[in-house]
Amino acid sequence: MEIIQIVGLGLVATVLTLVVREQKPMFAFLLATFTGLFIFLYVIGKIETVIGVLEQLADRSGIPSIYLKTVLKIIGIAYIAEFGSQIVRDAGQESIASKIEFAGKILILVMAVPIISVIVETVLGLLPIGS
Amino acid sequence: MNIDVSAIFQIAGIGIITAMIHTVLKQMGKEDMAQWVTLIGFVVVLFMVIRLLNDLFQEIKTIFLFQ
């Protein structure tokens, strides 16, 4: 029952943040960031096994590893961008947060371009008129 | 995981104690010393947070980006 530990940790950290915010808002922000990082780090360790199983499945079904790599990279970018933008939004900088999200979307799009081009080429190869 | 939950309490404690020292020094009329205490406490906490952030980014890099 690790979820109970995490929820308890979150509640305690929230109370501490509220206490500190009265005196020093900077420390409250850093405390919230630290708690977020801690929980994230805790969960990321669990995902590792899931990724391993996914890799094994892709290996067995003969999918080229470059596709799986791209998908995993996209997931990683999404995690980091989401995390960063949420922390910045917590600090009240809405505009910087939306710029971080925008950058994440653009980078994911750039990563996905090779896959899209492969799909388009496959579809063109299927068409009888093209050949 | 080398950083445990007590770091959260450490940060909160540093924040409260720094606020207390700040208030006391202000009452004594040493404004500049109070500012320095706040700055040093902030840097210590920032160092802890940055180290954990580095850990997280390394983990994400090894898991998702295969580097």
UniProtKB/TrEMBL annotation, chain A:
The chain crosses the membrane at residues 27-44, 106-129. InterPro entries: Spore_III_AC/AD, Spore_III_AD. Keywords: Membrane, Transmembrane, Transmembrane helix. NCBIfam families: spore_III_AD. This is Stage III sporulation protein AD.
From TrEMBL, chain B:
Keywords: Membrane, Transmembrane, Transmembrane helix. The chain crosses the membrane at residues 6-24, 36-53. The keyword Mitochondrion does not apply. NCBIfam families: spore_III_AC. This is Stage III sporulation protein AC. The gene is spoIIIAC.
